[in-house]
């Protein structure tokens, strides 16, 4: 049972103020907004609710992606403020990613006044239809008296790790509403983890047969990694993590879990020979796409899969206590197999600028406590290895495959953690989906260093085209994957939105710019001109 | 009954080639594309189907908006090629606008292979859920043998003036498919218009009481305008047209229909005193939003509404034949009330650059056969009057209220009509939604002159905020409508995407740049720095 703060005097508060007050009372204090007419009373109410910070985004996909980044880093929801169905629609792709990341996130979507709905005016649309595919909970407020309680419920449901959508008709924002009501939030399940349900996993890990633990969700944070490492040290099991973790803590001596590769052939190689695969917060591994003549299931033939039930981190710790009772934290070298030495940081590169040399520079210079947002796609193939020896940092990835996530997530992460440097590693094609995020970074003076890997192509699709048409000349198809005509000028684009920027064409130039960007406060963009890595 | 062209030899054709062949066979020869892996066989098939022109867009909202512009100008559908649910989601806002414009448009949305669907891989989503709110017809292809026929049906249904969405699983594109099948298209209803159902309208118009005809849909084209003008000349009825016509033909002496104002107070004034309102292809007029204390219905009290049934243009012509049998085309001055003299073109302005002086320059210089795309919002208040005396042109508006339509629609209109100059009049805030359209304009060397009315604000929302909070100081709310910190540099943004651009700060500079842009081929952007017009 949570208790709401004492309400303001009810007679002076309209629905818009009630809405903001209920959000703030439930612990939501940042609103990524791209409002319109139907949200104008909510905007006006910002001046009565100093506890809510409104952050303007020039496109809704920026707002929803920023709320995703904020939620991933704080563990609690930000809200968005979006304008009717089309406004929500513009934010859906990044809500799809947030759903896959299990991010707590509350959408507040304004709608026409209830009396206006029957007139089918131009902006009338099926908001629930747009919201349902990405939301775990959708509610249309039907009564001003319910506004406070339903707002609180939207927040509480989001805290379960999902996207919620609250649709608020405009007339409810200008009517007077009941004061904020207490909302009986369900207590999260207690922390008394037991081994129940994990016996099969324990037997498999203790069998001596080749085993791997695939970590996902909460298990990719420090506590889960440490528990998994104890198990690995005692049993020789390999540690893997899902291909696209929402938030992977790493570096600074944290146990390393190898990410499962995106390309099916590489993932096959990683999993070859595994007899037991324990799933800790991750789904059973599948290919990203289906391909002719191959299975979508990445689990090798003859491999048994053992999912851990219940709260993942507690289950891992119970398993570690059972299998490795004498192994303390930090984990010493395993008796069963040699632990590789802690990865070294790369030396600073010289010469040509490539995805590999840029990765080396990033690995060499990544500062303590950095938040890395990775939407580098093909140019990012080297990044994970290059940064394995870096100081402690977080790694946020493209969880749902809907590109255009990186710049917005970096924006939200920087709002969430103003004292930490954010490094956004971004592919050129993906950058162009939601480039408007740069303007919000400039406006809020967020400490984000964006590296655009500028290879002038949808390189990942070139790879796929060669699979689809291995024997044919495909000049017309190839042209549809080519970003070189005209070449995008990311320096001009960034400066056009108020973010200082510069271009690097050699490893030395890149290193110098990266040093400068990491030292200076505020946003900076490096146009990192590289050949395609694939 | 339409007959498909002779199929290629079936054994060599996979589903992707069948798809493109069926599209081309049904008359679709332009594809605005932002494909991904699941569409790669369709992309590869472009090299086997020279009749289909693929045009790459850097964001799906550009692709769908361009298809809208293309469909409005040609009367037949272009297709889009979009990547699974999130790709479609990014295009939904402009599909909402296309739905409101009743534009023929076919979305081809790739999905995972059927065998891959059960694995819930990251991009898995509810594509039908996203498509339904904007589509008049949605079909998921379930069998390669049905692909050709269902593609043909998607095109035929779109030709009825709606958005259709065909969802194509990837495996159907790589499997071999049956050759293109003939599709039994329904014949459109015949052209034998009668006065049936229009008797009430005829009586009302002949009554001598104050009457107005509100034109929309097909009636805003030349033929409908001429029929309506004959009626007006005979009866004294006023000619109005809906606030946001999909395509209004005007200028060069065409009869003038006054656009119903966006702001409710202005629309009230336009309709005051009207006793009979005849609806010709338009819905009964309503306010765009609902507001406290006023009705959403714009029909004045005591006014009778008379909708015309059936094909609108034919109904208007039948009405004209009945009411004005002796009035020929072109329409002479009306006996019942004086016809205003043909509007004059403004003189070239000098001095400060404002929305009004920029409008005067556009009115003075708009070339013959121009296609004007109008998303100028508050800065566009003067534009319609200023261009009333211009040579014959088309005027395309924001039909669904989902901003971010202008640049994409201009792009598609320029592809549709390569011999006509396109002038895109664009608000700064709206421009930032789908600015990526500029890159496609540069790549395809489209003859589009974009004027960005750069007042550094969501000015229209400032107007609404003053209504919502008339008596309060709202610095925090006001900040959320302000685009001046940092100021967007539209010259840098355009040049960053390969479109030459320049800034105008005086009327003389603007006039010189506009002359230059209209004279030179290819795209050009003018950053037109103006104070807020409201």
From TrEMBL, chains A, B:
CDD domains per UniProt: TPP_BFDC (cd02002), TPP_PYR_POX_like (cd07035)
Keyword vocabulary terms for this entry: Thiamine pyrophosphate
A Pfam family hit: TPP_enzyme_N
InterPro entries reported in the protein's UniProt record: THDP-binding, Thiamin_PyroP_enz_TPP-bd_dom, TPP_enz, TPP_enzyme_TPP-bd
All copies of domain Thiamine pyrophosphate enzyme N-terminal TPP-binding, residue ranges: 14-114
Native source organism of the sequence: Streptomyces gamaensis
Name listed for the protein in its UniProt record: Acetolactate synthase large subunit
Domain Thiamine pyrophosphate enzyme TPP-binding: 391-528
Family, per entry: Belongs to the TPP enzyme family.
């Amino acid at each position: 049972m949570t208790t709401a703060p004492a309400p303001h005097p009810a007679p002076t508060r309209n629905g818009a103020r009630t809405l903001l007050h209920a959000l703030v009372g439930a612990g939501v204090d940042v609103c990524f907004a791209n409002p319109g007419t139907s949200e104008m009373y909510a905007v006006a109410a910002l001046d009565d609710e100093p506890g809510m910070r409104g952050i303007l985004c020039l496109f809704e996909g920026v707002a929803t992606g920023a709320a995703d980044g904020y939620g991933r880093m704080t563990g609690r929801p930000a809200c968005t403020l979006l304008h009717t169905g089309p406004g929500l629609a513009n934010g859906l792709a990044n809500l799809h990613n947030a759903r896959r990341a299990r991010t707590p996130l509350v959408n507040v979507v304004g709608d026409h006044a209830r009396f206006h709905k029957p007139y089918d005016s131009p902006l009338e649309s099926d908001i629930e239809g747009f919201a349902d595919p990405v939301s775990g909970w959708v509610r249309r407020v039907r009564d001003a008296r319910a506004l406070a309680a339903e707002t609180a419920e939207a927040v509480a449901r989001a805290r379960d790790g999902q996207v919620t959508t609250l649709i608020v008709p405009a007339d409810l924002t200008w009517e007077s509403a009941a004061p904020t009501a207490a909302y009986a939030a369900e207590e999260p399940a207690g922390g008394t983890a037991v081994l129940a349900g994990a016996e099969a996993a324990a037997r498999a890990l203790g069998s001596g047969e080749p085993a791997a633990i695939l970590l996902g969700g909460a298990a990719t944070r420090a506590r889960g990694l440490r528990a998994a490492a104890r198990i690995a040290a005692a049993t020789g099991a390999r540690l893997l993590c899902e291909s696209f973790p929402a938030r992977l803590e790493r570096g600074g001596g944290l146990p390393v879990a190898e990410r499962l590769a995106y390309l099916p052939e590489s993932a096959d190689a990683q999993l070859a020979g595994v007899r037991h695969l324990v799933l800790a917060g991750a789904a059973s591994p599948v290919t990203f796409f289906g391909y002719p003549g191959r299975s979508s299931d990445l689990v090798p033939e003859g491999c048994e899969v053992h999912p851990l039930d219940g709260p993942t981190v507690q289950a891992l710790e119970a398993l570690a206590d059972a299998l490795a009772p004498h192994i303390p934290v930090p984990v010493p070298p395993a008796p069963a197999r040699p632990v590789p030495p802690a990865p070294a940081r790369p030396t600073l590169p010289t010469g040509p600028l490539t995805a590999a040399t840029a990765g080396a520079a990033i690995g060499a210079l990544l500062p303590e406590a950095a938040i890395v947002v990775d939407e580098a796609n093909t140019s990012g193939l080297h990044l994970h290895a290059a940064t394995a020896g870096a100081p402690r940092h977080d790694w946020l990835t493209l969880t749902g495959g809907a590109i255009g996530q990186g710049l917005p997530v970096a924006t939200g992460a920087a709002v969430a953690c103003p004292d930490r440097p954010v490094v956004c590693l971004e592919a050129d094609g993906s950058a162009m989906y939601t480039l408007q995020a740069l303007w919000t970074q400039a406006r809020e003076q967020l400490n984000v260093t964006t590296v655009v890997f500028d290879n002038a192509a949808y390189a990942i699709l070139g790879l796929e085209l060669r699979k689809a048409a291995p024997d044919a000349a495909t000049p017309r198809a190839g042209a549809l994957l080519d970003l070189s005509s005209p070449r995008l000028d990311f320096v001009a684009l960034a400066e056009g939105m108020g973010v200082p920027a510069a271009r690097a064409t050699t490893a030395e130039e890149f290193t110098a710019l990266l040093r400068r960007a990491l030292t200076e406060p505020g946003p900076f963009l490096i146009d990192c001109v590289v050949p395609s890595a694939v």
